[in-house]
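Two proteins were folded this term; both appear here.
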Amino acid sequence: MSQNVPTPQIYGTLLELTRELKDFADTSGLKAAFDVEGNAYIEGNGFVEQLKKENLVRNHELKAEIRGIIAKHCPRVQPSYKQ
């Protein structure tokens, strides 16, 4: 794997977003994947999206891209409101 891929940052951002959005989208099947060429991917139920290399540099850009992938591919769930 390439040294240029911030693996811990990608895993951390994905974990943070899955926890943050679990009440609004089905994020249970999401995982990060990497190939030998240094590309990073978000995989889910029935899809694989490659992360743009230019977004791997800044955390807020990475977070926005992963959030967009979740919005595009993950089904919405009805939030449960606690009384």
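Next, the second protein.
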Amino acid sequence: GLTIADRLINRAKLEIVNVPMHDENGDFDIPMHLPTWGETCELTQIETMMVDMKGRKHMATIMDDLCVDPSLNYDFWLNGSIGLVDMRLLIEGLTTAATKRTKEVQSFR
């Protein structure tokens, strides 16, 4: 059977949020797994993580794990193919969604 840790990890990856974005073709959503507590903490440290290749690889791994769309894979994130502003908007959207979900749970109790 699954351990309690396994069950919590699986539960954390079940929830998907749509991070809204906009370009010249209009609005679109990027479906992402809701980040775990640890991932949220790391995402807020983007400036620190992006200064060397080790940090960039770690950020690429996190983003690859969170992305539902297969085109947003490890290589996409490692190559830095996304604009810095869009990267910040995406991370802000993820951390906002995680915070909002936490507040919803607190108000439920």
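The mean pLDDT is 89. The longest strand covers residues 16-23. These notes refer to the second protein only.
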